[in-house]
Design goal:
By secondary structure, the chain is α+β, with helices and mostly antiparallel strands. It folds into 3 domains: 436 residues, no CATH class; 141 residues, no CATH class; 157 residues, no CATH class. It has 25 helices and 22 strands. The strands form 2 sheets. The protein has a 6-stranded mixed barrel with strand order 2-3-9-6-8-7. Strands 13-15-20-17-19-18 form a 6-stranded mixed β-barrel. A hairpin with a 2-residue loop joins strand 7 and strand 8. The longest helix is centred in the middle third of the chain and has 42 residues. It is elongated, with a radius of gyration of 34 Å.
Length: 836
């Protein structure tokens, strides 16, 4: 019992004596910063996901070609999930002699569960340039129908007109402007209408064999939705599928993944700063406890007793400090939530307790990772150190300590990144930075030391001090450089990456698609754009084909029964296109793009769909196109930047291979909100063309970018605090040595001003080295992360070097002078007596 009690008594004594100030501050700031970032990232990601689900109308969709069994609703009710039902089918809407094939949606109360249906206040024939919108209050009442612009225009309807829908007569009451699930996929992009599900039976349109899609909308708490999804997956029939927002739109999926990586990158910066501060603080702690361990050894304490003593000491200290950091982090995120709510303009979901658990584990792993091997130094301190102060100093265990700490830090990187590739890039980058910084620091210190005789008095002394404490100076410079590099990555570099992300989706990104353009309409459509003084968009040909064979073997949905996403792609037709030039938002990742006029049967496939249907470079695919087979070999795999909202295809072939098949055309273009009347005219002129409005999706992605940008700016406050902890630990690491040094020099007649100038020169040189390391590392890491992780073109920023080096010099200089005031004010006689 005494062996358990003694470590806590020692801890209390060290705390009273101020021995734990640096280590405690470093650990609390590190853990509180990481816990706050963890809460912040989780709540923002949940909010972004929830807002993105507004485009789907729910958190999850269960889609079926047959009525959905009640067992799914019963399970959802047991999990306290909200549900709503939707039946979607094509039918003719008639008004006198006019009729129009329309996609009709019959909905129940509660639709939509996420997002809102927006209705247009304008009257038929009125201006569409600036439509006034209002949020729908519920669903269409029984006996009424809500229609869209295309139905109203082509049937020349007014509010209050009666239309025939099957055997029922319904009254037109509202004009639909937007609905949540309208922009998800090229489905229902033609004329559309909405009715009350209670009127469905009266229409008589849903019979045995009817082409209808049944949907169950599910929404609720994240864990409950996930639990329902896991339960439902095991019970789906081959005509049913589950769909979330990530499954529905590749643009939203790409934006969400990129947002999560930005936030993971933010959290990793805090981990780096924590490690640098703790490593320096543990080093100082170990040096200050060598004498105490030597006394205990001389009084009969064994090595195992000392090891157990300090293990309990550090575990207890780590739990206490990490617990305090978690409490501070929780309180900070509450204040942050209040501030963030005004930015995100939505209620932030309540987070889980995972960030607290992560904070405790990270604090313990970081502390023990850097403290445990130095403890081996403490347990092996010889009793002779009581008489000789030069024995029992750092040995191999110190090097092993830093190596073990770096291993622990690497595992934390990968864990916090939640992305193996991102984690490995950061681990390899920082490991390489440590080695390069260390070697470069040793070389630069040697060069500076060789020219110190040509410098002035203060600079000569500063260079001599750095040379005399070369190992300590290099460790400090590397630690400070890593910390400053993390700050630069988090601020300037990340700011550049966010700007590049903004640039990837400019304000004039295409917000309308035209689908089902026929070949004989290309010229009239060009004339239409010329007449309205609009830029001519590129027309991409499109041929629809079903994948029937892979390497000569018949493809069946049974081959993908374990993967609903793959099964869905196999069941439906692919859109194939041809081109001779690779667009800017496509990048070849495997194989090579076709060259010249060669018309060999080859194809290029998007990497995501290739992984989904499990094909690779060299595989031969066969498509059924209008009853005839088209076969080609995969010669390249592409990465597609979906969030540019330009026209892209999963499968591309060279020109000359598909021209004999019946093709339609597709294009995308930008229409300013003030020119929406152009779309109205286009619908009248080309009634068969599907006009797809993706403006809502683009606004969602742009808002997501803005929210992540705001998140990064706020997190910078916490990383700055962690950066101060690194500075504090670096200055405190040499505090005892400087007190002794100051006492000796002042006893020999040196003035305080002389020592202050000499130390200022030393701190400026040390800060310059750290700033140089940080600038070089941040530039390299920014390029690697931007190009290979976030898939953005990183733009070199020369200000990084100016800011990095100047911040290093000024920051370390100010912190060093403030931190060494006590060393200059300590009476020399008192210090010399202790040394004696």
């Amino acid at each position: 019992m005494y062996q358990i009690k003694l470590p806590f008594q020692m801890m209390y004594r060290d705390w009273r004596a101020g021995e734990l100030n640096v280590l405690l501050l470093a650990l609390i700031i590190a853990v509180s910063g990481m816990v706050t970032v963890g809460f912040f990232a989780e709540r923002v990601e949940l909010a972004l996901a929830r807002e993105s689900n507004q485009l789907l109308g729910a958190d999850l969709l269960l889609i079926s070609s047959k009525p959905i069994p009640e067992q799914f609703a019963e399970e959802a009710n047991q999990l306290n999930l909200k549900i709503s039902w939707l039946t979607k089918f094509p039918s003719m809407i008639s008004n006198g002699e006019g009729n129009l094939l329309t996609q009709i949606k019959a909905v129940t109360e509660g639709y939509p569960l996420r997002g809102r249906v927006h209705l247009s206040k304008r009257s038929p024939g009125g201006s569409v340039s600036q439509p006034q919108l209002q949020t729908a209050n519920g669903i269409p009442p029984r006996g009424t129908i809500w229609i869209d612009e295309k139905v109203m225009t082509q049937l020349e309807l007014q509010r209050g007109d009666i239309v025939d829908v099957g055997a029922a007569q319904l009254t037109v009451t509202e004009l639909i402007a937007r609905e949540p699930d309208h922009s998800v996929g090229f489905i229902n992009m033609g004329a559309r209408a909405m009715i009350n599900a209670d009127d469905l039976e009266a229409t008589g349109l849903i019979q045995e064999g009817s082409r209808a899609s049944y949907q169950m909308l599910i929404a609720g708490e994240i864990d409950s939705v996930k639990q329902f999804r896991d339960w439902a997956k095991k019970r789906l029939a081959n005509y049913q599928r589950l769909e979330g927002i990530r499954d529905a739109r590749p643009e939203i999926k790409a934006a969400l993944q990129r947002a999560e990586k930005f936030l993971s990158l933010t959290a990793l910066a805090s981990v780096v700063l924590a490690a640098a501060a703790i490593a320096l603080a543990v080093r100082r702690f170990t040096q200050r406890h060598l004498d105490g361990c030597a006394v205990m050894r001389s009084l009969g304490a064994s090595q195992n007793q000392l090891l157990f003593l300090y293990l309990v000491y550090f575990i207890g200290f780590g739990l206490i400090a990490s617990g305090i950091g978690c409490l501070i982090g929780f309180g900070a995120q509450q204040a942050l939530t209040h501030w963030l709510t005004d930015i995100v303009e939505t209620d932030l979901p309540w987070p889980s307790g995972l960030p607290v658990l992560q904070g405790l584990l990270i604090g313990l792993v970081l502390l023990l990772g850097f403290a445990l091997p130095p403890v081996l130094n403490l347990r092996s301190v010889p009793a002779l150190r009581v008489l000789r102060r030069d024995v029992g100093l750092s040995n191999f265990h110190s090097i092993a300590g830093y190596l073990l700490g770096l291993v622990a830090l690497s595992l934390l990187f990968i864990w916090k990144a939640q992305d193996l590739k991102l984690g490995l890039y950061v681990v390899i980058g920082f490991a390489a930075a440590i080695v390069i910084f260390g070697c470069l620091g040793w070389l630069l210190i040697g060069i500076l030391a060789s020219i110190r005789h040509q410098a002035g008095g203060a600079w000569r002394y500063g260079l001599a001090s750095i040379r005399r404490r070369s190992v300590s100076s290099i460790l400090q410079a590397v630690a400070l450089g890593l910390g400053l590099m993390a700050l630069l990555i988090l601020t300037l570099i990340q700011d550049d990456l966010v700007k590049d992300w903004h640039a990837s989706l400019p304000p004039e990104a295409p917000n309308h698609f035209l689908v089902n353009i026929q070949a004989d309409q290309l010229q009239p459509l060009q004339e239409f754009f010329q007449h309205h003084a609009m830029e001519q968009p590129a027309m991409a040909p499109m041929v629809r084909g079903r994948l029937v064979q892979i390497n000569g073997k018949k493809v069946s949905t049974k081959n993908y029964s374990d993967d609903l996403h793959a099964e869905r792609h196999i069941r439906r037709e692919f859109n194939l296109s041809w081109t001779s030039e690779l667009s800017l938002d496509n990048q070849i990742v495997q194989g090579a793009w076709w060259q010249g006029d060669n018309i060999e049967p080859e194809l290029s496939i998007e990497e995501g769909i290739a992984a989904t249907i499990r094909v690779k470079l060299g595989d031969v695919l066969t498509f059924d196109i209008a009853g005839s087979h088209f076969t080609a070999k995969i010669t390249s795999i592409r990465k597609v930047d979906w969030d540019t909202f330009r026209v892209n295809f999963f499968v591309l072939v060279p020109p000359g291979l598909l021209e004999n098949y019946s093709a339609s055309y597709i294009t995308s273009f930008y229409v300013p909100p003030s020119d929406l009347a152009v779309i109205h005219d286009l619908v009248r002129a080309f009634p068969n063309i599907l006009v797809v409005d993706v403006a809502l999706v683009i606004r969602q992605v742009q808002q997501m970018i803005q929210q992540v940008s705001q998140a990064i700016e706020f997190v910078f406050v916490f990383t700055v605090l962690a950066g101060f902890a690194v500075l504090y630990a670096a200055i405190a690491a040499t505090q005892d040595e400087r007190i002794q040094e100051a006492a000796i020099f002042r006893a020999l007649g040196a003035k305080r001003e002389q020592l202050s100038r000499a130390w200022a020169a030393e701190f400026a040189i040390l800060g310059g080295l750290a700033g140089l390391f940080a600038s070089a590392g941040a530039t390299a890491m920014g390029f690697a992360i931007g190009k290979h992780i976030l898939h953005l073109e990183y733009t070199f920023n020369p200000w990084i070097w100016v800011v990095g080096i100047s911040t290093g010099v000024i920051g370390v200089l100010i912190a060093g002078l403030l931190g060494t005031r006590s060393a200059l004010s300590t009476p020399p006689l008192l210090t010399l007596r202790k040394l004696g």
